[in-house]
Amino acid sequence: MLFYLTQYWLEQLGDSDWGERLSGLRVFRYITFRSAGAAVTALALSWWWGPRFLRTLIRLGAVQNYSDRAHLAAAQDGQSAPPARRGVPTMGGVLIIAALDAACLLWAQWNALVILTLLSVVVLAGLGFYDDFLKITRQNPEGASPRLKLWVQFSLAAFIAIYLWLRPTTSTLVTDIIIPFYKHPILGGALFLGLVITILSIVGSSNAVNLTDGIDGLAIGCTLIVAFVFVILTYIAGHVRFAEYLWVPYVPGAGELTVVCAALIGAGLGFLWFNCQPASVFMGDTGSLALGGALGIIAVLIHQPFILVLAGGVFVAEGASALVQRTWFKYTRIRFGQGVRVFRRAPLHHHFQALGWTNSQVVTRFYILGILCAVVALSTLKLR
């Protein structure tokens, strides 16, 4: 909005005296300036709305008064677990998404990529909100059925994949397969494989962040690290010269996704202010499903879905641990009559809790691993 207003004023004033006086408004043409503005705006909105939002959640009774799955699993196994956090407001993802959308509407230059990203985030946030609402009203950790959540996620991801394929300017984002450390696509015209990769990138990322959200500050902090990587990658992908020099696929309009990533960082930092240990609010599925989906969608839109696997290594480990645990337990139960676990508990952060790590140790060490993964992901820009 600010971009269009300032450029309209400059166009109307032309070479007049006021046009010269307001020539500084040309700074709104720069993505770097608008990205900084989006980040600061989202952070300020989060800080401003945060206390009021928390009071509203408490007044409406949107608090967690049930033991989550980790505590139930620990009780079933006869293992000790930290006391369940009861009475803490949930649905904090609403604060993140509201600040993100408001900052993007103010600072971004709207194009198909930005609109597609923001609308998808709203859809996933709505799915998470419905899940959180059921958990609160029923006061149990089940919420919406996994089948329903997967159906909505796969439907949204399939829509995005088909939409990109049908548009002549973005069809190669689906049909050409790009992997890190290679300058050129390893496959071209691979429609079926491209559709599968696109869908799995979005659905997998959404669920991986959701699985990571189990300790105060863990999911949002790791999301911020990955978002910082995408601030750099989106800017390069939207800049013709940088993309050509670094052998990165150039995507027209992708530079505006830098504003979205910056707004995500600002909103995430603002939420972390309230979510750090001990958390005053939980993001719930409202935030985790939407944030994970946003990372997956942005990775697809800049033609770098496999970079997300590197940058989001912590999320990959969390998701893989849950999948391995579930699959191996079912297999051994069918094969030998008794299920065997690979980890003490899953996802992975609960395994380390069971080993005796404190919450702060798990979060800090996962942050360190996340930063390492981010460095590896950024190194692919030169190692091609």
Describe the structure in your own words.
The structure is a single chain. The protein has 384 residues and is mainly alpha-helical. It has one domain. The chain is built from 17 helices and 2 strands. It has helices spanning 2-13, 17-21, 31-60, 69-76, 93-107, 112-138, 146-166, 172-175, 191-212, 218-237, 240-246, 256-275, 284-301, 305-311, 313-336, 348-354, 359-379; strands spanning 63-64, 88-89. The chain has a two-stranded antiparallel sheet with strand order 1-2. The radius of gyration is 22 Å and the shape is globular.
Write the layout of secondary structure elements.
Elements: H1 2-13, H2 17-21, H3 31-60, E1 63-64, H4 69-76, E2 88-89, H5 93-107, H6 112-138, H7 146-166, H8 172-175, H9 191-212, H10 218-237, H11 240-246, H12 256-275, H13 284-301, H14 305-311, H15 313-336, H16 348-354, H17 359-379
Antiparallel strand pairs: 1-2
Helix pairs in contact: 3-5, 3-12, 5-6, 5-12, 5-13, 6-7, 6-13, 7-9, 9-13, 9-15, 10-12, 10-13, 10-17, 13-14, 14-15, 14-17
Largest sheet: 2 strands, antiparallel
Instruction: Report the radius of gyration as a whole number of Å.
Output: 22 Å
**Main sheet strand line-up:** 1-2
* Beta-strand content: under 5%
Q: How many structurally independent domains?
A: 1
The shape is: globular
N to C succession of SSEs: HHHEHEHHHHHHHHHHHHH
Give the uncertain stretches in residue-range form.
none
SS-derived structural category: mainly alpha
- Mean pLDDT reading: 90
CA(first)-CA(last) distance: 38 Å
Number of helices: 17
Number of β-strand runs: 2
Helical fraction equals 55-70%
